[in-house]
Each structure stands twice: as structure tokens, then as C-alpha cells.
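pls design
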């Protein structure tokens, strides 16, 4: 009989390869089913640990496709992707992905704090209740995204910008080493973008790496350490 297990609780935890980059993509090529031409062709990039990387390009250039491949949600046709020296998906909790078209059912009757706590279940498993450490991580995330005042609010009552910050908080409490954020600033007003910039700044001393697909990159900003341009 095989050793059955649930896909949570750090069962598949694998250590980082010493001194490996956060992410290395080498000559990757990605096709969508039924398409004759690749969405991404011969793309290579190396992202050092602790980098805040802006992923910039016009609509259709492959930003979302690239992030999904790095998150293990989309297969690559050729080439390789390594996350901290390991193949994609080898460690469940290491990568957190926030999609610009999330599938949250916002009418579901739960509160903000409960949704953010959902990011802890990759550590807890299905049957353990959140403990003191889990509550502290949620508190930290709510403070970083400046949504502590929303923690008891029903998620269906949130604005678009508030929803985005809640999803970022949920990704943070996962304690992932690599955050893949697809257009996280789209629904944010000027004040909320400042909150997001501060959030990114706080990730750096923690040794976290963030790859952010964005249309809001500005030359000379200290919001990002580097920028990677996609075209066509």
C-alpha cells in the first residue's frame, strides 16, 4: 500500500540549494494548447535572492504566462526553471502566487482575518487549528498592509483595492520565500500604492524575493531593485 498523504503540512518540504538564486529560467519556451506560435520563446532570467523585480511589458507580452510557469501552474515546452536551485513545485510552501484574476468567491460569508489565515494552511494541514504563531503572522500581515481595521469585515463588503491588499496579506502569511505578484497595483489608489511600496520595502530585509508584473513602473524609483522587460 502506498503512503497516502495530504498536500499540506510541509510534507514535501525540500531545503534550498546552498547559494542558489531565487529563480533561474533558462531558455524557456511556452505554448498554449492549440496555438502554433509560442507565447514565450527562449526566455532566460536570473533573479538573486532578496530582489524586488519589476516585470514590465505590454498586454500580451507574456508577463502572466511567465509567472504562472514559475508558480508551476503552466507547463513549459522546453528549457528549465529552478526555484532556489530546485525544480518548480518541489516544495509546496516556498512560492506564493497572487493572480490578477483571482478565483475567490467574494460572496462567501467569511471575515477578512479568516481569509488571510487561509495562507497558513500550507503549514497547518487540514485538521490542525491555528496556534499562537499563526495568529501572530496574520497580525503582522494585517499591519504591513494597513488593513487591521478590516479584519472583522465580511470579505463581500470590501472594495477592489481592499481585496487586493487582503490577498497580498494572505500570500505573506504563507511565509513563502518567493512572491509572484501579477498586476497587484491595478485596483489600488495612490494611497494604497504607497502601502504596497512599503510592503515591498519590508520584504527585502526579510530576505524575501518578489517578482511583480506591473504597468506602473517608473524609471528612477527605489520601489524595485531591477526591471525585466518583455516585448511582443
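designed seq:
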Amino acid at each position: 500500500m502506498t503512503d497516502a498523504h495530504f498536500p499540506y503540512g510541509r510534507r514535501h518540504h525540500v531545503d534550498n540549494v546552498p547559494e542558489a538564486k531565487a529563480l533561474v529560467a533558462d531558455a524557456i519556451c511556452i505554448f498554449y494548447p492549440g496555438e502554433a506560435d509560442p507565447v514565450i520563446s527562449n526566455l532566460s532570467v536570473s533573479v538573486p535572492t532578496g530582489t524586488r523585480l519589476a516585470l514590465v511589458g505590454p498586454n500580451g507580452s507574456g508577463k502572466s504566462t511567465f509567472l504562472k510557469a514559475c508558480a508551476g501552474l503552466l507547463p513549459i515546452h522546453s528549457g528549465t526553471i529552478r526555484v532556489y536551485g530546485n525544480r518548480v513545485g518541489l516544495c509546496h510552501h516556498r512560492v506564493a502566487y497572487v493572480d490578477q484574476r483571482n478565483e475567490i468567491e467574494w460572496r462567501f460569508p467569511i471575515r477578512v482575518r479568516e481569509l488571510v489565515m487561509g495562507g497558513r494552511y500550507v503549514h497547518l494541514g487540514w485538521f490542525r487549528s491555528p496556534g499562537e504563531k499563526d495568529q501572530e503572522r496574520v497580525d503582522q500581515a494585517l499591519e504591513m498592509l494597513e488593513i487591521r481595521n478590516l479584519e472583522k469585515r465580511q470579505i463581500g463588503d470590501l472594495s477592489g483595492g481592499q481585496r487586493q491588499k487582503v490577498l497580498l496579506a494572505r500570500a505573506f502569511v504563507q511565509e513563502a520565500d518567493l512572491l509572484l505578484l501579477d498586476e497587484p497595483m491595478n485596483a489600488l489608489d495612490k494611497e494604497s500604492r504607497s502601502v504596497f511600496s512599503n510592503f515591498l520595502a519590508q520584504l527585502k530585509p526579510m530576505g524575501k524575493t518578489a517578482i511583480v508584473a506591473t504597468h506602473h513602473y517608473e524609471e528612477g524609483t527605489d520601489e524595485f531593485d531591477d526591471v525585466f522587460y518583455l516585448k511582443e
